[in-house]
Amino acid sequence: MEDKKINSVCAVSGKCSGCQLNNLTYSQQLKLKQSKVNKLFYGIIKPEKIVASPEQFRYRNKASAVFFESKNKEIRWGIYQSATGGFCAVEKCFLQTENSDKIFNSIAQLLKSFKIKIYNNKTKAGFFRSAVVRNSLATGETMVVLVTTDGELPKERSFVNALIKKHPEITTVVQSIYTGDAVLMTGEKEKILFGDGYITDEILGKKFRISAHSFYQINSRQTAQLYRAAVELAQLKSGEKFLDAYCGTGTIGIIASSQGAEGTGIEINPTAVEDAKINAQLNGAGNMTFACGDAGEVIEKSEEKYDTIFIDPPRAGCSKKFLISLVKGAPERVVYVSCNPETQVRDVRFLMKNGYKIHKAIPFDMFPHTNHVETVVLLSQRRADEHIDIKLDLTKLDLTSAETKPTYDEIKDYVFKKFGLKVSTLYISQVKRKLGLEVGDSYNKPKSEKSKQPNCPKDKEKAIVEALKWFRVI
Predict the structure, then answer these.
(1) What predicted TM-score, i.e. pTM, was given to this entire model?
(2) CB-based burial, 412-426: b 16+ in 10 Å, e otherwise
(3) End-to-end alpha-carbon separation of the chain, Å?
């Protein structure tokens, strides 16, 4: 793990708002994100240790750059600053691949030499707006998306040929036409200028086609760990049925289908659905079907009984309509993947109030040097006569069972915050012994048979038991 601050390598870290944690080492970032998730899930469940990203720099497989004219009329590319509406000119970004940096620099040079007008978001004049580079770690393929206003790219063929000559690793170039007001956005209308219009990547042995508009996780190696955990938590068996809600291009569902269960993917974006269908064919996933529609309506109207539902919604989380439909559909298990634990906790509380029990919450650092953190949660129907044995291989996710055990101080803190009671180490060890839990052979035992020790009061014993339940010790 590269345990250093990004501002030690990035020349614009004080100007660019892209890396909010630029003054922290990576180990400090992980502690901060762990604390954030722990606080959000406080009173619900104790999250597992955060899973670090395999790469802390250059991890983004997708990079976006806005192009603009500097004061001296030079064409520059950089990062859009959403807070101020301005741009931070850069020549390299240490979150994205070096390949992306070089392509953006070449595009800026070509725009100048071809005298292509840069779009001004204030005056609404100009033609060229932004660019996107997507890289496949597995295949080495590279896509370039040129975002423009309506119209044909001037000297189109010559421009594309010049770009490919500089960067022969580029396998496809797409023009995306966007006429709205957003600064960084691809349009619904597109034109393939070179290649097939898509690249192919692999996750956990599965191939996925990525088009210009496809949603695809930007940290490839960490995505593999996240999806592996999600599928293992689901514990799918042959003959079972599952639903992949908000399925996008079908990544989670297709990986999960390897367990032999029959899957259905639902996505409201028709382009993503077409990609998902092709991805299923690429991987021989004949037990996966995909449909375009609202996931809540599909669950509500369907007579199908699903054993498991995977959820991976946008940052806003699940709609109330979807959650109500999910509860009515009553799947046995819910595996909830989220890029926004704040809205995830809100949705989890709703499910817990409506018959579900939470078993695990695992945070993943998908976006080093930023405030963002991703979490995957497992819930199941609450049944008094059932016990779910979760066989998740924590060693694959850099977790150890010893690290999941609460300390005495954590138990004390929980009891005080939850019940307003102060409990001693002695009382905690007494309760643990009473419950048959492991305690050191001589830990807090009286020094002699004649020595007297105070017994834990009933109210404090009850509070300690609740804490042990919350920490999943009992």
Answers:
(1) 0.78
(2) bebbeeebebebeeb
(3) 34
Helix axes 408-419, 425-434, angle to 10 degrees: 100
Q: Residue 234, by phi and psi: left (phi above 0), alpha (psi -120 to 50) or beta?
A: alpha
Q: Residue for token digits 């956990």?
A: 204
d(CA 177, CA 194): 16
Each residue of 49-82: pLDDT tens digit? 999 999 999 999 999 999 998 888 899 999 877 6
Question: Would strands 333-338 and 308-311 be described as parallel, antiparallel, or unpaired?
Answer: parallel
∠ CA(28), CA(32), CA(35), 5° rounding?
140
Partners of 357 in the β-ladder? 380
Q: How confident is the model at residue 396 (pLDDT cuts 50, 70, 90)?
A: low
Mean pLDDT of the region 204-217: 90
> What pLDDT, in 10s, does the model give residues 142-159?
999 999 999 999 999 999
Tell me, rounded to whole angstroms, the distance of Cα 327 from its chain centroid.
24
| Residues contacting 385, CB < 8 A, separation 6+ | none
Q: Could you give the CA distance from residue 321 to residue 300 in angstroms, rounded to a whole number?
A: 9
Work out the burial of residue 341: count CB atoms within 10 Å of its CB; fewer than 13 is exposed, 13-18 middle, 19 or more buried: buried
Catalogue the long-range contacts made by 353-360 (C-beta closer than 8 Å, 24 or more residues apart). 354/323, 354/327, 355/327, 355/330, 355/381, 355/382, 356/327, 356/380, 356/381, 356/382, 357/381, 357/382, 358/44, 358/45, 359/45, 359/388, 359/390, 360/45, 360/48, 360/233, 360/390, 360/392
The predicted pLDDT at position 231 comes to 96
Gap between the Cα atoms of 65 and 42, Å rounded: 38
Give, as one character, the DSSP assignment of residue 311.
E
Structure confidence by residue, pLDDT tens digits, 229-271: 999 999 999 999 999 999 989 999 999 999 899 999 999 888 8
Report CA-CA distances (Å) from 4 to 11, 14, 60, 329, 369: 15, 16, 18, 48, 10
Higher pLDDT, 140 or 383: 140
Cβ atoms 401, 409 nearer than 8 A: no
339 tagged catalytic: yes
19, 247, 318, 339: the active-site residue: 339
- Torsion angle, alpha carbons of 186, 65, 32, 403, to 10: 70
Q: Extract the tokens encoding 176.
A: 């995306």
Q: What is the DSSP letter of 246?
A: T
pLDDT, tens digit, 9 for 90 and up, residues 317-364: 998 889 999 999 899 999 999 999 999 999 999 999 999 999 999 999
